[in-house]
Amino acid sequence: MGELNELQKEIIRLKEATDTLVLAHYYQTLDIQDVADVVGDSFEMARRAKEAEQNTIVVCGVHFMAESAKILSPDKTILLPAPDAGCPMADMVTPEDVLALREKHPKAQVMCYVNSAAAVKAVSDVCCTSSSAVRIAKALNTDEIIFVPDRNLGRYVAEQVPEKQFFFHPGFCPIHDRVTAEQARTAKARYPNAVFAAHPECQEEVLDLADFIGSTSQIIAFARETEAMEIIIGTEIGVLELLQREMPEKRIFSVTASFVCPNMKKTSLQDLYNSLATGIYEIQMSHAEIAAAKSSLDRMIAL
């Protein structure tokens, strides 16, 4: 972390004065991460939101993350500084899609990736994150699993849990899905001494070339622990920036220069300041919406 600027110092003063917890995802810009109380992946953010003693939580991320925090902490005020920060993957699945899959596969339980709307969580049996998906799939008391909405993560989980039958919804993360095997091979040829760590939201042919496959937090842990001095990162550019700054002795590369999630970059320091100063923008959900979606998130955290 470098020296804080005046706006960052004011943000820290404001969050302390208002007793507000600031959560930031690893894909947020470094200036946002530097003033957050917690920086983590979606699972860590959900867990910390539920455990927080503060009555106000600011979520520097995308809409489904703030919505999840509200579901887990319905009596708390949840703020999203950039209200238009959405998730294209979450928009690819509807409750009707899930119900249609349930009708087609009546014996299956529905595993819902946390990158989804509350209405989809409400018709699912359990949520998961990329870091917990394999563990939860193994723990479910069922031989058949419907996985929504990410087909790439679903297929990766299915390979790790071959004893169960999986059915997929055709959703995907546009940022991870557009990485090609050719790009991965090019990066590996350019940096022959580097290890390649990829996110399971990438396509199967990209994962086949990886030396390590894991969630955002797992990729970060791998990069910190590996003896390799060169690492190719197969996830959003924010992870590369974090690791570059943290470990200047290692050479960190991106598998593609276009690995940027525009929605994750929408939150600015000014947005965060405005949210702390004025209480915008609050996530509003009815008691019925929260109750319907809560059981799948609670079960995720329990498992």
CATH topology of the largest domain: Rossmann fold
- Can you tell me the CATH superfamily of the largest domain? NadA-like
Largest beta sheet: strand ordering = 2-1-3-4
Number of helical stretches of at least 4 residues = 15
Number of strands: 12
Label this structure with key terms.
Rossmann fold; 12 strands; alpha/beta; flat; 3 domains; four-stranded parallel β-sheet; 303 residues
Structural description of this entry:
- The protein is of the alpha/beta class and 303 residues long.
- The chain folds into 3 domains: 6-86 and 264-290, NadA-like (Rossmann fold, 3-Layer(aba) Sandwich), CATH 3.40.50.10800; 90-172, NadA-like (Rossmann fold, 3-Layer(aba) Sandwich); 179-254, Rossmann fold, CATH 3.40.50.10800.
- Helix content is 44%, strand content 16%.
- The protein has 15 helices and 12 strands.
- The strands form 3 sheets. The chain has a 4-stranded parallel beta sheet, sandwiched between helices. A 4-stranded parallel beta sheet has the order 6-5-7-8, sandwiched between helices.
- Helix 13 (237-246) links the parallel strand 11 and strand 12 (251-254).
- Helix 1 (6-17) packs parallel to helix 14.
- It is flat and about 55 Å long.
- The chain starts with 5 loop residues before the first helix and ends with a helix.
